[in-house]
Specification:
D-Amino Acid Oxidase, Chain A, domain 2, eight-stranded mixed beta sheet, 19 strands, alpha+beta, 10 helices, 370 residues, FAD/NAD(P)-binding domain
């Protein structure tokens, strides 16, 4: 393992892997190391519902959603075997139609429908709500996608799995030609130096190595719960988004069951503790939310995926330099939309890096000496 790299990416989830992919695409030959305390994709990415919905609450998020949708479409076109699957989607909303159309991208082509939403039988629509068909949605097995991206990148990027970063020093001395570098002290006893570092830690905001660097962002960690409903999706079933509560039902045909995600309000949790599963309070709250929409399914919600995610103070992803010289960049806190917005987060992170320009420079006119 070389003692240094041009860029070190800390975090091997979907965001970290796409950052590495953007770097190698923009600046071939840049040495990139991706480090993860576990195997790549084993954190929030593994537990992600993987639903891409073409929407955004702000103009910036809508631009990011548009970029990400185009990026995933191109990935699927390049390799149809990737686990990115288009899914029919209905949106159930009591909000005004004008407001809804402001939130969703033009590519969603929202169309008012008079019939049921098309999810599993027995769905109850909230009073005064309307149903809209939405185009452009897809579902992904995010863990499997990360593994596919890593296979593609291994000849370009060094992956160090099971290697924890214990300290980040943004002001370490480097070779004279490089100036200052960032030193990463690793759990293996090594010190890796890089010209720049991108922190993509997912919900591990409070890891001692970067806790003080990240604290000024004001991001918080919230529990994420998605129930697994023991009912096989039928041909023609649609995903259903309940817009007003930010909940959804998703048919997981590859796994043979439905998933129900709702907005849990348990904040400031520890990632290490949330992986232990549903608490009695979590189970009761999640099933009560499901009963509001599909009471017949609540008793069939016998399993769940439980984890957490980082939420920014604004609801928009955080992509910014953490030090005055821009040697350490943070990318994440996507407020539950890490997969959905990952390509755009990666692109914005790459924008902040001092990558060499791979384009050939025009030859300068030279005058002969007299």
């Amino acid at each position: 393992m070389p003692p240094g790299a041009d860029v070190a990416v800390v975090g091997g989830g979907i965001v970290g892997c796409l950052i590495a992919r953007h770097i190698t695409a923009r600046a071939p030959g840049t040495s990139v190391v991706v480090l993860d305390r576990d195997t790549v994709g084993s954190g929030a990415s593994r537990r992600s519902a993987g639903l891409h919905c073409p929407r955004g609450a702000t103009e910036r998020v809508r631009r990011m959603a548009r970029y990400s949708q185009d990026y995933y479409d191109k990935l699927r076109d390049l390799d149809p075997a990737l686990p990115i699957h288009p899914v029919a989607l209905s949106v159930v909303a009591a909000a005004s139609e004008a407001k809804l159309r402001e939130t969703y991208l033009d590519s969603a082509r929202l169309t008012r429908t008079d019939g049921p939403s098309g999810g599993p039988p027995g769905i109850r629509h909230p009073e005064r709500s309307r149903v809209f068909a939405c185009e452009g949605a897809h579902h992904t097995d995010v863990y499997a996608l990360v593994q596919a991206l890593v296979r593609e990148l291994r000849h370009l990027v060094t992956f160090r799995e099971g290697v924890e970063v214990e300290a980040v020093d943004p002001d370490a001395p480097g070779p004279a030609r490089d100036g200052r570098r960032v030193a990463l002290r690793l759990g293996t006893g090594e010190t890796l130096t890089a010209r720049q570092v991108v922190l993509a830690p997912g919900p591990w905001l409070h890891a001692p190595a970067w806790r003080d660097l990240v604290a000024p962002l004001g991001a918080r960690i919230k529990k994420i719960i998605a129930l697994h409903i023991d009912r096989a999706p039928a041909t023609g079933d649609r995903a259903v988004v309940f817009q007003d509560e930010d909940a959804f039902l998703l048919p997981l045909k590859d796994r043979g069951h439905w998933l129900f995600s709702y907005t849990c309000q348990e904040w400031d949790v520890d990632p290490a503790a949330t992986a232990s599963g549903l608490s009695p309070d979590n189970a009761g709250e999640a099933r009560e939310s499901l009963r509001r929409y599909a009471p017949e399914l609540a008793e069939r919600a016998l399993s769940a995926r439980v984890f957490c995610d980082a939420y920014s103070s604004t609801g928009e992803p955080e992509v910014r330099a953490l030090d005055a010289d821009g040697r350490v960049v943070f990318a994440g806190a996507a407020s539950g939309s890490g997969y959905r917005l990952a390509p755009a987060i990666a692109s914005q992170a790459a924008d902040l890096l001092a990558l060499p320009d791979p384009r050939p420079r025009p030859a300068q006119n030279r005058r002969s000496h007299p």
